[in-house]
Amino acid sequence: MCRKIFIGATGQHCGKTTISLSLMSLARRKYARVGFMKPIGPKCIEYLGLTMDKDAAMFASVFGMQQYAPLMSPLTLTPGFTRRFLDGQLDAATPARAIQNACRELEQHHDFLIIEGAGHGGVGSVVGMNNAQVAAMLEAPVLMVTGGGIGNVIDAVELNLALYEREGSSVRIIMPNKLLPEKREYSMAYLTRAFQRDGLLVTGAFDYSRTLADPTLQHVADLLELPLHGDPADRSRICHTIQLGAASSQKVIDSLEDSTLLIVTSSRDELIVTASSLHHIPEFRTRLAGLIVAGHAPMSNITERILVDSNIPYIRIQETTSEVYYRLREHVSKIGPDDTEKIELIHAIAEKYLNFDAIDAMLD
To answer: pTM of the prediction?
Structure first.
């Protein structure tokens, strides 16, 4: 009989996919056949000729589960889907039927199945199938991922628990994630005390990590919907700092921090040339991840030639530097199949932070 776990969360960006990756890595040490599905796919891509949720496609690619790809993302919220559903153009039972049929078939081929939700408990309500309803329908015990902290975590968990309980789903585990190392023990003690009355297992996940939290160059390119030029080997490089190149060239270069993504105006020929030239010097290569060349003004021909010849990763965009800067500051990194550094880190440290045996025992 297939064991199942539903990965829910109190909101977006808590780290569900990171936890799912970790559980996949740990579960495969105990169970021969471990599967994955994302019942509701709000963010879709084309993969193997299929329209799939991005996370489901990533799991299929990273873990070699391509044969199950058609089942791993049964309900994709493509443009117009919710409108057609609300207008009555789709059978009201379609979402539930698609999810249930896919899960049943995956259960036939796996010993352990990780089911990742989408956002907080109410996501999916617009098509009559929110996370709490999905977990109940699939009879999958729930692990609820939260952010770090104490008061905000308790408030968010209580809000989500009410919906899960109303729908008859069984929340078994609360997992605070992105904990500040210096406050980890303190936070976990209070959170355990807050939820012990409900018989819930409160177990911590990862400490906050810049490597996991910060975007890669490819993430930035995807967010801006523009091509990433330069050395393709650098596409998975992580940008720990985003800096505006507004000062003099010397001051900008001197103030570069570790793995900086530098946003520079297209008319700043001297700064673009300087940054491009420094790309081949190891000391600066570690400090300068790449460039975003912003603005309507064209670069001079010689500047553009130097930029291209240097092979430094760069993105050319017509927006102003300030517009780009604020867009990126609001961006929260998501893990993709090409983020080898992040995925390898998760696999390497999963056992240190996650107690899989304790989690598995709560599924009985």
So the answer is: 0.78
